Amino acid sequence: MEINNKEIKNVKEAFISIVLGTASGLLTYYLFLYFNIAIFGWNLGLFFAPLIAGYVETIIAQHLTGESIGGISAFILFLVTVVYGFIIDNNTLGYNIITFGSIIIIIQAAVPTFANYFGIVVIISMLSYFTGFFKKLTDNIDNTIRKHFGKEEKEIEIVLPYDDKGSNEKLNSLDFIFMTSNNPEHLEYDNLGYFYTTAVFERNTHIFHLSPENVEKKHLNELKKGKDECLIKLSEKIKKAGGNGVIDLEISYILNGLGGSYFQVISRGMGIKIKEEYPTS
Predict the structure, then answer these.
(1) Fewer Cβ close by (within 10 Å): the C or N end of the chain?
(2) Given a cut of 50, is residue 222 above it in pLDDT?
């Protein structure tokens, strides 16, 4: 139920971000049309309206959810500007928009615009990300501003590796036996029933990261931590039921939430009470 509530909240916040981003893009396009801000007859709102929509959506989404939802409003504005600019407000079409000739004109007008938009927004963005050009540029600007106003240079988060040794020592000190086998030989035990535990934590779903290595390390640490927490909780549950071991142990890792915004770790198995000492050799 807690996960469902988080999903509903995420959907609402994402919807609000998209609506506000789309509204800002429509307002931008209206202003460009009203004041006829154009170059050689090409209204600049076709370019700026989707950019403004995506930017506003991203800022609001990061404020509400702490992550980007993909700039959906930018694509909505792109469709709106193409439909209005090349179909509704196109005097060359007249009233025969359903004719074959009009459709050809629409395609000829819209496809180059889409190609230009895709090339500018997507391809250049990808190239700048992989080459690190804009990252270096924005970092230099940011550091210059911070230096000018006497602020310290921003620090990159350092993610320390998870303490596997300490966690393993804690698990080994539980006086509890974990087995993946579903039918251990030479072992007498009472079956206490099926038990499971789960751990949920947030996942960084940003498309681009300033430090992807740190994000991967942090996710790996969270998965290890979640796995160990689940095993400890599982042993505590079975101990409360009078057991001292688990067989047929299984650990699952899944994604939950809008766009896989949460990691969920699940440990499950059959709780048992061992009647004799488990053989060590």
Answers:
(1) C
(2) yes
